[in-house]
Amino acid sequence: MEGRKFYGYMRCSSREQNEDRQLIALKEMGVPEKQIYMDKQSGKDFNRPQYKRLLRKLDNNSVLFVKSIDRLGRNYADLNEQWRIITKEKGADIVVIDMPILDTRRDKNLLGTFISDIVLALLSYVAENERINIKQRQAEGIAAAKARGVKFGRPPVPLPDNFYEVHKQWRDKKLTLKQAAKACNLAASTFFDKAREFEKG
Predict the structure, then answer these.
(1) CATH superfamily of 5-131
(2) Is the overall model pTM greater than 0.85, yes or no?
(3) CB 27 within 8 A of CB 33
(4) How far apart are CA 68 and CA 102, in angstroms?
């Protein structure tokens, strides 16, 4: 372990508040703060500026620490590909603090690497599956709500108090569409749509 460079990677989406916990965990592992890289965005892909900067620094003398595997990424295919780049192409080690079995420093033999790869593949598959299930549950929830008559999107703009009077003048050709819309403080297209709805209903 002597002389190896320690790096840390953190990721927080805008909705999450676990930045401090990740930072504390990385520092406890001996990672210097100046060698901790953080992106504030979702884990759906690896198009992240700080992650890319970190990747350029890694070599076979590096150890990369992450608090948990989902901090590195949430997409099954991408996560496996990045794991391969870090461990095989760069020759660096990865340590997942919350899951000691995912520590490529432990067994430098073929079996150790094989176990890490299998565990990662299994975890990634579970994470990806959960992501798909959440999306499916959301879609089903929206469909069920629509079936119950719940309306999605922006609420309709209420009709101005003078709409009926202006509408009559417009229909009697006393006002142009533009004048009628202006009198109701609406866009011309909105006034026209409201007029059609009103006439239908």
Answers:
(1) Resolvase, N-terminal catalytic domain (3.40.50.1390)
(2) no
(3) yes
(4) 10
pLDDT at site 175: 92
Per-residue model confidence (pLDDT) at position 61: 94
Percent of the chain, pLDDT > 90?
A: 37
d(CA 92, CA 5): 10
Say how far apart CA 108 and CA 92 lie, in whole Å.
12
Question: Residue 51 and residue 78: Cα distance in Å, rounded?
Answer: 13
Q: Where are the domains of the chain?
A: 5-131, 163-200
3-state secondary structure 62-129: EEEEECCHHHHCCCHHHHHHHHHHHHHHCCCEEEECCCCCCECCCCCCHHHHHHHHHHHHHHHHHHHH
- What is the Cα–Cα distance from 115 to 186, expressed in whole angstroms? 65
Pairwise CA distance, residues 199 & 14, whole Å = 46
14 has catalytic annotation: no
Residues of the chain with pLDDT under 70: 1-2, 14-18, 43, 107-113, 154, 157, 201
Nearest to 169 by CA among 157, 182, 155, 158: 182
